[in-house]
Every structure is written in structure tokens, then in C-alpha cells.
Design goal:
Elements (H helix, E strand, L loop, with lengths): L7 H27 L7 H23 L2 H4 L3 H48 L26
Length: 147
């Protein structure tokens, strides 16, 4: 979804609104992740995705044709730089929060896999032929609630 602007000043004003809203949504989602709540979903999640795509497309268009914003008022361009920096800070914090969630999730999966492997291979006896006997029946996976 590309922005439909009448002139560079209008395009920059629209980019300011887009950047502000996207930064707010990213900051809210980061706050929720840090509070151990689920990330944005429903209408807000869809809005965040839609705005992120629009922002990415608009940046690509501006990069290809700088004249789309060059003649905008300098104060608006300065404000866009400041708000873009805020968005970049929000995205960096968001990336850090998601990285922590990923690290914890991968650790839990690894711990569960190691526990299942330990349970399956732990108490095996020797069979009649002198080798290890095959497990008899299914091996239950026990998950400790304190983990």
C-alpha cells in the first residue's frame, strides 16, 4: 500500500503519522513481551503488519526517487528524522525482547528433549544375549512444572 500524496510536504506529513503510529505499536508490543504477555494480535497486530509493510514500501519508493520528499519543508524533514530515530530505537528494543523470548523458548525445548532422551535411555537392562535389552512399551515424557 503506497501513500497517495499530493506533494512532498503531504508525503512527509503522511510519513510522520505512519512513523509515529508504527513506533507506538512496536513500543506497545515490546512492553507486552517484557511483561510476559502475548504480543499484539487481532486488529492491532494486523495494523502493525500493514503499517510496517506500507513503511517499507514507502522507504523503497523514496530511496528510488528522492524528489518525492526533497522539496518538503525543512522543519518537517527534521521532524521525520527525529521520529525515524524513535522508530529505530523501538525496533532495536523489540528485537532484543524477541531475542530473549527465542532464547528462553529454545532452552525449554532443549531441556525437554534432553529429559526425554534421558528417560528413554536411562534405565536399560541387559538382555539374555548379553546386550542391552530394547525398551518395552512406550516411554512417558514427564514434565516438571517447576522447570
Amino acid at each position: 500500500m503506497a501513500l497517495l500524496a499530493e506533494d512532498p510536504a503531504d508525503r512527509v506529513e503522511q510519513m510522520l503519522l505512519l512513523t509515529d503510529r508504527l513506533a507506538s505499536l512496536i513500543e506497545e508490543e515490546t512492553r507486552r513481551i517484557e511483561a510476559r504477555l502475548p504480543p499484539l494480535d487481532g486488529a492491532e497486530g494486523e495494523e502493525k503488519n500493514r503499517l510496517a509493510n506500507a513503511y517499507r514500501l514507502e522507504l523503497a519508493r523514496i530511496k528510488h526517487d528522492r524528489a518525492m520528499i526533497e522539496s518538503a519543508p525543512p522543519t518537517s524533514l527534521a521532524a521525520l528524522k527525529v521520529r525515524t530515530a524513535r522508530l529505530q530505537d523501538a525496533l532495536a528494543a523489540h528485537e532484543t525482547a524477541l531475542g530473549a523470548v527465542k532464547f528462553v523458548a529454545e532452552g525449554l525445548v532443549q531441556a525437554m528433549a534432553e529429559d526425554v532422551a534421558r528417560q528413554r535411555n536411562g534405565a536399560r537392562n541387559y538382555g539374555a544375549g548379553g546386550g542391552l535389552a530394547a525398551p518395552t512399551g512406550p516411554s512417558p515424557a514427564v514434565l516438571d512444572k517447576s522447570a
